[in-house]
Fold this protein.
Amino acid sequence: MRHQPLGMVLLGLALLLTTRADAANFGVKNATVVLDQRALLVNARFDLPINARIEEALSKGIPIDVVIDVNMVKHRWWWRNRLITDHALRRRIQFHALSRQYLVSGLHAHEPSESFGSLTQALSYAGTLDDFTILLPAKKDIETDARYLLQLRARLDIEALPMLMRPLAYATPSWRLNTGWTEWPVQRTQP
Amino acid sequence: MAGTTHSTVKRLLARVSPLAVLSVLLAISLGMMSAATQNSALFGDLYSLLLLLNILGVALLLTLILLSVRKLVLQFRARVMGSRLTLRLFGLFVLLSVVPVAVVYLFSVQAFNRGIDNWFDVRIEQALDSALALGRTALDTAKEDLTRKARDMAAELDDSSRRELLPTLNALREQYGLFELTLFGQDGKVISSSTQGAVRGKSVVPDRPGEAVFTQARRGELYAGIEPLGESGLQLRVLVPVMSRAVGAPVRVLQVIEPLPERYARLGQNVQAAFAEYEKIFYLRGPLKFGFTLTLSLVALSTLLLAVWAAIYAARRLVTPIRDLAEGTRAVARGDYSQQLPVPVGDELGILVQSFNVMTRRIRRAQGEITRGQREAEIQRTYLETVLTHLSSGVLSFDPRGHLRTHNAAAHQILGADLVSGEGKTLAWLAEMHPALAPFVNALRALLRKAQTEWQAEITLPGDAGRRVLMVRGTRLPGLHGRSGGHVIVFDDITALIQAQRDAAWGEVARRLAHEIKNPLTPIQLSAERIRHKCMDGLPEKERATLDRATHTIVQQVEAMKAMVNAFSEYARPAPMHIQAVNLNQLVQDVVELYKSRANPVRYQLDLDATLPVLQADPGQLRQVLHNLLLNATDALATTDNPTMEIATRYVDEPNSRFVELHVRDNGPGFAPSVMDHLFEPYVTTKDKGTGLGLAIVKKVIEEHNGTLWAGNLRDGGASFTIRLPASEVLTALARGKTT
């Protein structure tokens, strides 16, 4: 969530500056969320198509960060949803020229990076959450009869780009890749 | 001094602060952005924020300046004083600042764009490409070597039974000197694995290949790849299918993993790192140019805007005192001398404004003095006018060119002319407008022409109310530089005075005559009677009759002379007055009633004013006056056809005087011009009989009542008498008359 408000402001500014929407944007293919006790099990597939411009940057050694935002909220029809927990998962895709491999860093710092022979594989890996577990903070109570939602979003983090590229990236629609917020119902395991 | 400095600083801050603060913040922000552009370690994380802040700052600055410019333009359109000069100065300053900044900006952009392009050398790029190619070739050789070994091992493993697998793998690994050998089943599960570390008692979890890689191998295809390992390591991974000779047996996959020797790996990674860095930098030269251009543009723009703002500020600051001066001058031209302008600090404009302030102060003081002088002159004039107005003498003054300047009420009254409309006009005008004054004007002209500084003359004016005599005294006024300053003429109507003198003389004559004549009359009479008495008898009849007639005539004439002398002495002696309330109308009616008889053909017309106040007068004497006037008129009308007399009374109430007027008019022949001058003198008569004292007595009585009378001829023929008795002064006048 680094610089997120600022990012939004710049995004808004950039959207004002440019009207053309990019054809290939990020999207969510499917997602299932199961709440088991106080652990949230997330399975999701993101569709992360990448345009030629980003591919070129990748091939030139520029690392691309995909950030998956995962929020769990309690649905409230009468007011804004109440935030239970929020996570930002960052995956960095980088090209290794010597071995011609695409490296994707893990979700967590201790996870080793995976290498892939093709970009498609790397993106597919980056856009996949397999039984990703989130432990709910102890402070938050889970009500049995309340409705909970999982908000998912995948976006290309422009702020993680080299500093000099940021202004251009903000101003260019092809760099502004974002699924937008999607909401998925949280299923509960039968006690 | 400290105070003024303090206030100056305060004023400067108050005016400068909003834009100055913005400018300083913008400068800091631009500095940070510039630092970030040059070295991303500094403020790199804040780059976007700084960029946004700078854009917003520039936008804000632009808005403020546009507002200022708009205000300037509006002022210019409204033709506000000083706006034209402000706009002109502003334009000049902007031109002076924009052109150099624009030139520097364009050259800078061009220079660093070219400079950045020059950083990148084709030879370095080629060298790096070659190094990478060399590294890849070296790695490929190692990969091929490992692939061959893997194939050999797969061939040896193809029919090994499950039980022999692990020892075989271990043996093979030892034989080929490899790091890890793993055999996977078709379902991807590990069948057996031999790792170098396992022997030493370390991790025994085999390194699993990626899903795609495994699928490729399971399809019977070979996979050989180099994978980065951690920070600086590289490993070779080869997957080969292990075909069983038995038909239908499941395909197994052998994975061989061999880390590259540390030295190779390090060199390889170095090449990779250098290549990647170079590629990155090469790729980023576009954004770098863009970033620099952006920073420079922002800097140039903010510099420009600051310069524009400074231009507005400077123009305003420069023009303000000039505008103040212009407005102040306008105000002075309008006659407002209270203008004091704020003095700008220090420079020549300050001196100018100070001088202006001193000037207006002095003008105001001078103006005050002038006003005071005017007021004093006005007071003097009013005083003089008051004095003149209350003078009984008429006063006229003429300027050197003979134009009327001053006149007073008495002059107006004596001359009977409206002098207000004659102000600034010459004597000719007076003669033109009032022909009756022609003798006066002619005499004055002649006198004014004389070189004497003072003169005196008597001027006689004919008029309806009889001739009037004016005593005129003239004085030449001293003028500037010895020239004539005009004339002052003072005149009095001395008709009454002369008349009084004449009357007094007549009184004296009458008294002496009476005295001198009366004394011999008695002896004459006695002597005549004696002659008659003594000589009558001795004379013959004829002479006796003659003597009788002669003595009779003497006695008779002496009697008549006695009566005349008595009347004269009566006239000369002041009669005692008996003052009481008199109704003049009633008195008139009573007297007129006596004259209305069959024998008298005269028709009497009475026009009596009902508002007439009661007079305090001697009714006997007034009755005498009326009798005399009526008698006089009746005698005059003896030869007139259809004789008519008009008797009118009137009450006149004027601001300064209240009086009762009595008019007696007839339609007779009027007065002959020869008698006009001596009408009221005793012994003046046109009749065969009468003493000639009638009108003299009338005049005497009226004057004793403090009144005035005058007689004249009517235009249609006939005589007119007007008597004026003061209503308010009746009492006091009569009281005085009583004491004398």
Observations:
- The domain at 580-739 of chain B is CATH 3.30.565.10 (Heat Shock Protein 90).
- Chain B touches chain A through 41 residues (CB under 8 Å).
- The longest strand of chain B covers residues 468-478.
